[in-house]
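Suppose a colleague, Dr. K., hands you the sequence of a protein chain of 442 amino acids and asks what its three-dimensional shape might be. Before reaching for any lab equipment, you can write down a predicted structure in token form. Begin with the sequence itself:
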Amino acid sequence: MKNNPRALAVEALTRVFQNKAYSNIEISNLLNKSDMSDADSRLMTNIVYGVIQHKYVLEYQLEPYLKDKKLDFWLDLLLQTAIYQMCYLDKIPAHAVLNESTEIAKQRANQGAGNLVNAVLRNFQRHGARTMPGKDSVYDMSRLYSVPRWLVDLFEEQQGAKKTKEILQTVNQPSNVSIRVNTNKTTVADLQKTLQDKGFDVKPSKISSVGLVCESGNLVNTDEFRAGLYTIQDESSMLVAPALDLQPNSRVLDACAAPGGKTTHIASYIKAGAGEVTALDIHKHKTKLIRENSERMGYSDIISTGAVDARKAKKVLNTTFDRILVDAPCSGLGLLRRKPELRYFRQPEDLMNLQRVQLQILDSMVDLLEVNGKMVFSTCTFDDEENEQVVEKFLAAHKNFELVPVKHESAMDKSVKDGMLKVLPSDYFTDGFFIATFVRKN
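The predicted structure, expressed as tokens, is then:
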């Protein structure tokens, strides 16, 4: 079954939900062991992401035919993959989905499992899809957009009903591929033309002057990528390095740096021999990723790495910095479009637990920042617990720090409030993001 895209989709989904694994990693692991064609690989990937993004809808469609039946986990997921194909993939004949799914059940279990799948899918085919409730209640929106109710509640409480609906309407749409141009090796215009000549439909980012956006395509497998002319990076995370207000001689600490996208962006502002970047990550194997990115992008003479828990940095480092970036561990709620499984794994208590970790890291940075130095705090989420509340608590505990307006491009003016920058996933079709800047006073 290793070359059957539907069977592999079920395997990937089982690993994701049983092990709380990242879908992109499980898809990649399974594809690397298969000999499927590009078309089958795309089908398998489509099914995996589609089921994750529409899981509550698929369960709702299956309810009348399963009632209270207790199915094996994989079998339930197999039925969801079939309903997804029948509801969302118009070019695939229903009979092909039905026959393939029945055969997978028989091969993986027995004739009885195959009979059950066949009966359920024939019933669904006969009656058609149920109409989804169209009300704007938290319950109905949770089911319609496959987002847990507690998250819909949280979004409504913090962003209001209108913004919440906008966010939910966009998180299940396919994300774009965005790249940050290495302007020390090429220009945005030149790289755009080069990639367009290769068949990529790339356009300038609306929010970053060094970004290009492409709806689809494998932008990792190009000579230009290998030569370090660009790196894959979401547009909203390209806003972080400019917020540091870097100078050619800046001495920068990137406290939570892996895999190094923001680190190399920081390095692009710095002159070798004049300034430097120290990049830390708690996991030693991830510091290798930072070094690999540094070498590819041409900044290995500026960036040095260390496997250090950022919460203990002040005990390990014996120097100070005029710039510090704390791109803190967070819930990743701003990444729901690219990592849709996160919505099912997060729990309400996670937000406050992460807030404690974020404050511990910021506290560890206090004595490492020079007087009049700047520290940027950023996350890839947009809930208040991990953002504004962290800023408020940090300032209350450290009277020698003050909040200053985030340095940003004019395109982001409407995303700045009280000096802090917050991007919702629906604002520019990017990741949700937050940035705040502190200055250490005397």
